[in-house]
Amino acid sequence: MRLRKLSHTLALIALGLFNQGCTEGSDITSHCQEPKNLCIDSLSNLSIETLRQREYGSRIHLKQNLNNSKPNDQRYLASYLSDGLEIYTRVDIPATSMPETGYPVLVFAHGWTDTQASANYDFSYDNNAMYAMLVDTFTNAGFIVLMPGFRGHGTLAGNQADGFDYLTAWNNASYLSPTYYAIDTLNLIDSISSLNDINWQKWHQKIRRKPNVDLSRVYLLAHSQGGDVALTTLAIAGEGSGVKTTIKAASIWAGNIPARFTQAETFRPMASSLEAFMSGDGTWTGNAVGKDGSVNPNFIFPYPSDWIGTIDTQSDKWTWQKEVWQENSIKKIIQSTYQEMYDTLNYYVRDLEDATFSVTKDSQGQIVIQHNRDIAKKMAHIGGYEYPKYLSEPIALHYGEHDYYSMPKWNEILANKITLAGGEAYAFMYPHNNHSLKASEHEWFSPTGTEDGQDKAITRDLQLFSDQIPQ
C-alpha cells in the first residue's frame, strides 16, 4: 500500500487520462458489463506515452446557422467524429479582414457541466456570460473560434451529442472525464484543416471571401475543468506525438490542473465541510490557526467559493449554508469520495477488482490515506502535470488569489516545472479574484478596490498569441 497524508504542500502527482476504450483481443477477463468502449483494460493504457501514439482527426461539418440575431455574423453549430461519436462544436468566423495566410484558430475548452444538464448545453451563443464574452472577444480580434461541447454535451435537431453514457460512467469522483474531453479536443484540432473544404457561401450568401485557416497559428484557451482538458491535450500533442496539428501557444484560466488525488481531497471537502477552511477553533481567520491559537491539522485553503456570501456562521445570513456545509468531518467526505472513485475503477478497469484504500488519522489528527499500490503507481504516470517535457508550447496560467479550484501554488509549481524543463510558462495571479477572474461583491473575499482580472488576462493572451511576451 502507498501511504500519503492530506497535505497540499506535497508534490502533486498528475492529471488522469482515459483510453478511448478496451483493447481488441484482450486476454483480460472483463467484469465490466457495459459496452466495451466504456471499459479500460488497465490504467497503464492511459499514460501520456500511450495516448501520444494514437492518431486523431475527423472532418468538421456545418449543421446549423446561428446568425439569426446578427445577420452579419458567421456563427454555426457543427459536428465531427471523436472515437466514432458525433460531437458538436460551435464555430465562429471573424468579420475582420482575413490575413493572406488565413485566419488563426482558437480552440476553447469550457468548464464542468453537470451530467444531467449536458443535453441542454447551449455553447454560450445566446447569453452574456463569461464564455460568450471570451468567444466574441477573440472572434472580433480576428480568430476563428471553435468551442467543442465534448461528448454528451448539447442537442441539435432533437439529437443529443453522442457519448452521454461516458458521462454517466466517468463524470464523477474518479475525476477522469477530462481525458475523454481531451481526446475530443484533439480530434477537433486535427480536423481544423477540413474547414478549408466547406462551401461557406451555401451557409452565408453575403460572404465576400471564403475563410481559410492558418494551420501554423492554432491556439488553445481553457477555463476551469477545461484547464485539466487543455493540459492533457498539450501533453499528448507535444513534439513527437501522433497529433498532426501543432498547437502554437495556450492559455489556461483558473484551471483545475492538479493530480486526481489532489482534486479528490480538495474540491468536495471545500464545497461541503467547514473543516476545510475554518481554523482550529472553528472560526474563520484566513488560516489554520484559530483565535485561541489552536490549529486545524486538515486545513486546506482559507477561501471557499464567494457565493457562500458570508463565512460567519453566527451571522443571520448563515441560513441555507447550514445545509450545504453540514458535514464537519473532512475524513467522512474524503472516505465517500474515494469510495466512489474506487467503485468506479473496480467496475470499469479490467485488471482491477476489489482494490481497496483506507482513510485514518495520525496522532496529530491529520488525515492519512493508504491507496492501492497499483492504482497509485499508475496514476503517477499519467497526466500533463508530470510531463513538463512535452509542454513545449508557450503557456499562460491565469488564476485568482482566492480561488481554491485553481490554487496559486498549483499554478506556480506547474510554471516552475515547465521552465525547468526548458519550456516557456507565464504565471499570472490576480489579487483577491474568484474563479471567474473577477472581484467578488463580498468584502471578506475581495477587499474594496479589488480589480477584475479578466481584461488584463485577455490583453496578455492577445500578446501571447501575437508572439509577444505577455506583460
Describe the overall structure.
The protein has helices at residues 48-51, 130-140, 164-170, 177-189, 200-203, 225-236, 260-264, 267-272, 321-324, 330-348, 373-379, 408-420, 454-464; strands at residues 2-5, 61-65, 74-82, 85-93, 103-109, 144-148, 155-156, 159-160, 213-223, 249-253, 358-361, 367-371, 395-400, 425-430. The longest helix is centred in the last third of the chain and has 19 residues, at 330-348. It folds into two domains: 61-261 and 385-464, Rossmann fold; 263-379, no CATH class. Helix 4 crosses helix 6 (225-236). The chain is globular, with a radius of gyration of 22 Å. It contains 13 helices and 14 strands. Strands 2-3-4-6-5-9-10-13-14 form a nine-stranded mixed β-sheet, sandwiched between helices. Strands 1-12-11 form a three-stranded antiparallel β-sheet. Strands 7-8 form a two-stranded antiparallel ribbon. A hairpin with a 2-residue loop joins strand 3 (74-82) and strand 4 (85-93). It is of the alpha/beta class.
